[in-house]
Amino acid sequence: MEQKSLSEIAKRVLQLMHILPPSETETPRLPPFLDRCAQCNKQLSNRAPIYMYGDLQGFCSPGCRNSRIDLDEEMAKASK
To answer: In whole angstroms, what is the distance from residue 27 CA to residue 42 CA?
Structure first.
């Protein structure tokens, strides 16, 4: 069984959702919710890994994603 990278799988999912063009010759575009990191607001690229968490939130690094996870956990504890 051929192993595909996570970015290849994500790319195919976005193609199936008609967000990315099917042709490799066209420049693929990211959907609007993946324009910027949900934590630090850094511009995300379709040529670099995007780390996902929660309700379709994209992050530029595992560190940014983990910061948001920690923040969400703290908010959940505070609301109890």
So the answer is: 20
Domain ranges for the chain: 6-78
3-state SS, residue 73: helix
CA distance 73 to 57: 16
The residues, ordered by sequence, that sit 6+ positions from 57 with a Cβ below 8 Å of its Cβ are: 33, 38, 68
Closest CA to 34 of 25, 22, 43, 47: 43
* Number of neighbouring beta carbons within 10 Å of residue 37: 20
Which residues contact residue 35 at a Cβ distance below 8 angstroms, ignoring those fewer than 6 apart?
Answer: 43, 44
- Per-residue pLDDT 10s for the chain (80 aa) are 456 666 777 776 666 666 555 555 456 677 888 899 999 999 998 889 999 998 889 999 999 999 999 999 999 999 87
